[in-house]
Design brief:
The protein is mainly alpha-helical. It is built from 29 helices and no strands. Helix 8 runs antiparallel to helix 9 and helix 17 runs antiparallel to helix 18.
Amino acid sequence: MKIPRNLLISGAAILVVYSAMLCAANYFFGSNALIIVALLGVGHSYLAWCHAKSEMDGLFADLVMHAPDYVTKTLSEAMEAHRSKRPLTDSQRRVSYCFKQLTQATPQGEVGEIENPPRTIQELRKAADAGNTDAMFNLGNGYANGQGVAKDYQQAMTWWRKAANAGDADAMYNVGVGYDHGQGVAQDYQQAMAWYHKAADAGIAVAMYNIGTLYAKGCGVAQDYQQAMVWYRKAADAGNAKAMFNIGVLYDNGYGVARDYQQAMAWYRKAADSGDAGAMSNISVLYRKGQGVAQDYQQAMTWWRKAADAGDADAMFNLGFIYENGQGVTQDYQQAITWYRKAADAGNAGAMCSIGFLYDNGQGVAQDYQQAMAWYRKAADAGNAGAMYNIGTLYANGRGMAQNYQQALAWYRKAADAGNAVAMNNIGFLYANGQGVVQDYQQAMAWYRKAADAGNAGAMYNMGVMYANGQGVAQDYQQAMAWSRKAADDGIAVAMYNIGVGYDHGQGVVQDYQQAMAWYRKAADAGDENAKKRLAELAVYSQKAG
């Protein structure tokens, strides 16, 4: 992974400072102090790197913003304690253990792990009971993560609240997270918002980001993208990469602001410079679509590779899609399946479905319906509606197994429940033809209508046919023409042909041979064989008449 220039500069600057401290420590306190300073220096350098790379790696990533002063203060105390052979205090140990915490990327919205203080839980509790804020905070972390004690979010919240009431900003944030996710307390977005505000007032950037997210989602408050933007900007000004990304999303979609792809790109770049993989992926999308920038598939590929290298599963999937469809690159099914596998390993359900599709069609791999089914099932188990539909299709067509319309119907229903319009249309087709169910035109019409309302052009065509034939509804040629037009507008050639038939025979419209010829030509140009045949018949008739 290429390290951004700003990270190298900040890292180098920190190393220079600590080099000077090493010299001073060695001069005044000898080699033992030199070792302590070296360890803390390396730790602090790595902390700064973690923060610059991805502030959203967890609670402690946000603490790094305060680390320089904290390290400087505790450093001199630690050196003096070591020289005097006194045990280090919790505060002095906390610097060292922060290093350990920030190497374990904690997902956004979760609390950091306990800092593993060397004292026993009993000693830590004694210190907490005596009013030591760090001990209260650490006890909360211990209970939240089950370190040294049984996991208990209620106890965690109790100790975080005590630390928060004593002024610990990070504990305020943790209490907000508890209410936000209903951990140790009943979920309460208003309480979460209140505690996030306290933490934000104390300078915790991730709390500012979370306030913005609550406004964006309308959790505990009325949905308000403008307020979300306000808080995302505050968090972004404090260096929060995910907030930069979300500002880009707001501009990208025109939420709370006028849609502005150039502004979206600018904010995505800021987030990407801070290591946000999602931003890198969205930059690729803008390049691919030519939004805010000139369309450039090469740039799209470059940014998707960066995002993929940073672990973004969607970017891996998109690289597979690009190779599968030959967009900006030579079509390469083997490269497609390679990237789809990487995305699937990272949990991307769409990639699992795509691997199944390649096995289904023998693209990049030997055709293998059993492998196709296995991958479709993985994707379906992960909630992918397209995979559920594809499983239904394998059963309906008897590919790799005995044909089974009842199983097909069951899987189509799962896909339809997940919003797949093609599956809704296919359920209608099964009812219309009595496959796997008793033939029922009314049920067929009901499912065609659901699919049509969801935008499926095939279902619109089928509704036109049902109205023309009076199946499941009263025969109505005007309705038949209306639905055929909708399907034709979406490129369905046979619907164009049926419109031609309507004009040819005056069904649902005034008979008009010129309109009929025009629609037959459209259908023929779109590949409809019946339209080509009818045009030939009309040409012969015209010659005889002449």
